[in-house]
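To: structure desk
From: M.T.
Subject: fold request, one chain
Message: Could you run this one when you get a chance? Sequence is below, nothing fancy, just the single chain.
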Amino acid sequence: MDEVVLTAGVLYLIVLLRAGGTFAVGWLAGAGARRSRFAGRISSAKFRRVERAIQRWGAPVVAVSFLTVGFQTAANFLAGSMRMPLPRYLPALFLGGAAWALIYATVGLSVLDVLGRLFAERTALGVAASAVVLLAVCGVVVYRRGKAALSPGDVVAEES
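Reply: Done. Structure tokens follow.
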């Protein structure tokens, strides 16, 4: 149990620094954009309406983003660039980060424990299982890239 608590604490510190840093970079990027040639575009009524909506309702999105893969960085960056007030952002960061750290500490340590035992007791089975997982991940990546490269509106040119 001590191992899980220590791991969760370290992961929590990491996620607070990483997500908070991403928020700060977003805040600075937004401030820079407001002083750039894009200032006219981002000061439109539509943009300000979106910015107010994110400032008001973005905190739950930030908190839930920690339970996703690949959306967390974007949510924190956008919260910063859209100037979400810190009194709304910080509770979302603390709650979402705690959930993330606990999930990764418990599930992550369990998976590592199972893999360690599998490799120690049945090395061939461990290698085979790792190869299957690696091939499945590669297959998903290749499939998604192929699907993204050929969107529905694309026309395949026929050679004659």
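Reply (cont.): The helical segments are 2-34, 45-65, 72-81, 86-121, 123-149. Let me know if you need anything else for the meeting.
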